[in-house]
């Protein structure tokens, strides 16, 4: 059986220790297992004890990482999983930790998506396509995205948001000291601006018709 040749507390922690064994291995252990198995220099450990220390300590370690990561602001399931992978946690443990956190309500992709969408709805600066792309990048499912964007349509007028943005952009274009642009160039600039903001073609088309009273514009 491996023999403990050294035991050191990790720097800046009170609960974590490194156990050094005479076979060259070292084990990260939570303090509970130091106490449970009365570990000290000269102590022999069975393989069962070593396995328990490793698996249980890794689970505790992963939970600490996850809860600390969530303490600053809400996160999606994908963000938490990626954080744990960055810290070297294995997939088995990641699944267990994420499932526990979800059960406690600390990860909720639906509520995250709602908050994300309606926070940006108040700012009135982007369209639904941009919102969808941002949520997809955060690992939110298409089903949840479709649901929250559908909810958004009941309280947000996409056309009015795009129209306000386009009018401000048009003022900038007209007041620019650079070369004056003809109407078709102005339309093109408005189109490109709204497309970058994530508005779809139907909305952009309607906005340009409203502003210019016609739509003789080649994309």
UniProtKB/TrEMBL annotation:
RecX first three-helical domain ranges (all copies): 62-99
**Keywords for this protein:** Coiled coil, Cytoplasm
Tell me which family the UniProt entry assigns to this protein: Belongs to the RecX family.
Q: Where is the RecX second three-helical domain?
A: 108-149
Protein name as catalogued: Regulatory protein RecX
The record ties this protein, via InterPro entries, to: RecX_HTH_1st, RecX_HTH_2nd, RecX_HTH_3rd, Regulatory_RecX, WH-like_DNA-bd_sf
| Record PANTHER family | REGULATORY PROTEIN RECX FAMILY PROTEIN
Domain RecX third three-helical residue range list: 157-208
Described by its record, this protein's role is as follows: Modulates RecA activity.
Name the Gene Ontology biological process terms.
regulation of DNA repair
Q: Does the keyword Signal apply?
A: no
Gene Ontology cellular-component annotations: cytoplasm
Q: A single Pfam family, by name?
A: RecX_HTH1
Please state where this protein is localized: Cytoplasm
Gene name of this polypeptide:
recX
Coiled-coil ranges per UniProt: 156-183
Q: Which domain of life is it from?
A: Bacteria
Which organism encodes this protein?
Candidatus Kryptonium thompsonii
């Amino acid at each position: 059986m491996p023999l403990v040749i050294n035991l050191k507390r990790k720097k800046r922690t009170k609960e974590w220790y490194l156990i050094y064994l005479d076979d060259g291995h070292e084990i990260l252990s939570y303090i509970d297992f130091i106490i449970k198995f009365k570990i000290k220099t000269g102590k022999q450990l069975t393989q069962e004890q070593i396995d328990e220390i490793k698996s249980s300590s890794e689970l505790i370690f992963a939970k600490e990482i996850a809860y600390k990561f969530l303490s600053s602001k809400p996160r999606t399931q994908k963000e938490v999983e990626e954080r744990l992978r960055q810290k070297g946690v294995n997939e088995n443990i990641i699944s267990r930790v994420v499932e526990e956190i979800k059960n406690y309500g600390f990860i909720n992709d639906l509520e995250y998506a709602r908050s994300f969408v309606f926070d940006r709805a108040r700012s009135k600066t982007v369209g639904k396509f941009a919102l969808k792309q941002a949520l997809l990048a955060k690992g939110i499912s298409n089903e949840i995205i479709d649901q929250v964007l559908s909810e958004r349509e009941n309280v947000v007028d996409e056309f009015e948001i795009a129209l306000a943005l386009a009018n401000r952009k048009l003022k900038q274009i007209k007041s620019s000291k650079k070369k004056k642009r003809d109407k078709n160039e102005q339309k093109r600039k408005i189109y490109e601006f709204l497309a970058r903001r994530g508005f779809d073609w139907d909305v952009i088309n309607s906005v340009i018709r409203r502003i210019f009273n016609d739509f003789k514009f080649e994309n």
